[in-house]
Amino acid sequence: MLSAEASFVGVIVEGGDASGAGQMSPVKTLWEPPACYFAPKWTAEEFKKWWTGHVLPMAEKTEAPGFTSDLRQDHKKLYGPEGKYEDHNVARADEGTWWGVHTNPNARGTEDAMACYSDESYLWVEHSDPPPSVSGVPDAQVLAELAYEHVHIPELSFEVNPAADAQKVNLATWVWLPASELEPVSVTARLDGYANLSSTVTARPVSVSLDAGTADATVHAGSGGCAVSSAGVIGAEWTSARKGETPPCGVTYHRATHGGDGYELSATVTWEVSWEGSDGSGGDLPSGEFGSSLPVQVQEVQTIVR
């Protein structure tokens, strides 16, 4: 595999601020985004520099003389004075770009990514032309799959009552996430320099599963977890008017922590993911999970004997 600096990044991903956030994990699937794709990579000048400053000198150092000789002859036929792409199309630099293989950064070093370069090729594409119909060029769905990896979920902050350091044995803990924590997240991917095709991926929260951090507890939730309500919230905020009720989303601990390390109460939100292409196409991608946890201390209920 040969590499060199290039000004075109292949696929540009916009949206999905990653600051203080986490990446979703696909739910119950072995699906993975593409390991590589074929997209804009070099300007004409960069392509020339890559050949003359990297590929040919590297071949001289590492390959057999016969291979190097053939490589130079092939290069001259394509890019020499009489070649189809004279001087690597430097004189036509404003008209198009050179396309090549890009590796998905998250797949770099894998066998699938290395296999992408087994038959590496390059192609000149005019700016005025649509993306070429060759293997590896992203369509709307592939752009969506590449965007999927950039859907970062904001760090979740779920509320509990009683407070995390004042849980009580056999007293229900109410858990809820306000609508502000559950806004949909969208990311758009497009080909660098060829913006006539793009795809937008949107993740929407649908439910949360609770883990009390101990088997000595009862989890209060529906069969599919605590669902997002029509108001966009999960669970319900405790108020004194609801004293004695069973929470729609919560936990009841049955054993005290006695000042030890406590339990780790975790809330994992499931996000359904869909995509829409600029060409009118669209569909679904694997649902994703992302969660956070909260250390809790559980106390015995103190009673007064008269």
TrEMBL record:
It comes from the Bacteria. This is Secreted protein.
